[in-house]
Design goal:
273 residues, five-stranded mixed sheet, 12 strands, globular
Length: 273
Amino acid sequence: MKNIDLSIIVVGYKSEDTIVPFLNSIQKSKDGLEKEIIVVDNYPGDKCVELAKKHPLKPKVLVNTENVGLSKAVNWAIRESHGKYVLQINPDTRIMGNALKLLFDFAEEHPVLGAVAPKLLYNDGKIQPSCYKFPTIGNAIKYYFFNCKNCFNKYFPGNKTTKVDVAVMAAFLIPKATINQVGGLDERFFLYYEDVEYCRRLHKFNLPVYYYPKAQVMHTHGASGNFSSHLSSPLAKSAEIYHGKFGSDVLNIVLWIGQKWQKIIKKLTWSKK
């Protein structure tokens, strides 16, 4: 078997409309890397598996009979992978230009690495915020009461390479050596917070997470959800697992008071105009 530079892992769920364009974007990538592509399908009710198997890239396709969640699916693919690096990436993305080679070269140049993430773009080419601070109670207080705009929401770190607390896993390259050291995704998280927990684990091992904007990936559905609205979203369950019951309750109270406070501030601001 050839030495594999990069294992590209994609988990599909109702992805029959996006899987072919995604694979096409990899096919068009002129990166010179030895790649393997592993598609894990979490939704047997559509044609994603059939379309993936027919694609000229001939990805390895793993099929679940039910939706087992993102973390379990990714971990299954990791166990089946042989690459020096693993790229966890969403099926609603498109590789732009030589992004794969840029990410690979960056990882090669940083032997001490937790993960590296590219710049994400919306379909119209606008920048998609994709990094955030750890969602602590302290950062929530800073965000709502001390005008720290980047403390509790996804943000754009700028056009320079920078270390971040958390980068979303819509496109997220991890050295296999790092996975061997810290483990795979935490399977308690069905969806949401798996990226936060993993980045926190990387930091505990003193393995940095980088945002590398030279590499660019288009991401269609990145606008869905953020931590400031998780009181009324599926994030709540994952937040309770991450923070614990007491920590989650305290955070929910801070968010609730903070949102009320922000509304009061807006009303006062408008009344002065």
